């Protein structure tokens, strides 16, 4: 194997691992196919062959620069589509929680009740006001919920 082939092999491996990492939220490739706690050269070769097959978009047994670029674009588009679908689900869940009677609309009463419930939750010391510390804590908590996949409402 000459130097150019070795470099190409490394680049293809890096592109594959990058694409795999982008397949899902914080998903890591599993090279340990039999889950015995170690990765054999056979498992690594099998994984590389699987990735080659996925990236060889025209199934001609060769990878072109264009195929690698297209493969990465497809992985990015799939990741974005999943992200948008999760966002739409969170928005639907939020709406459904606000629409307490399930009639498909949020009335002024439901909207006000939701605001009152939120204020109750944020006013940690039950003094009827939301001070600066309570507001910052609520905002921090809301940010954490969003990172975990909730909508914080």
UniProtKB/TrEMBL annotation:
Residues 77-100, 118-153 have a biased composition (Basic and acidic residues). Keywords: Signal. SMART domains: EFh. The keyword Signal applies. Residues 43-78, 110-145 form the EF-hand domain. Transmembrane segments: none annotated. InterPro entries: EF-hand-dom_pair, EF_Hand_1_Ca_BS, EF_hand_dom. GO terms for molecular function: calcium ion binding. It comes from the Bacteria. Residues 1-21 form the signal peptide. Residues 77-153 are annotated as: Disordered. This is EF-hand domain-containing protein.
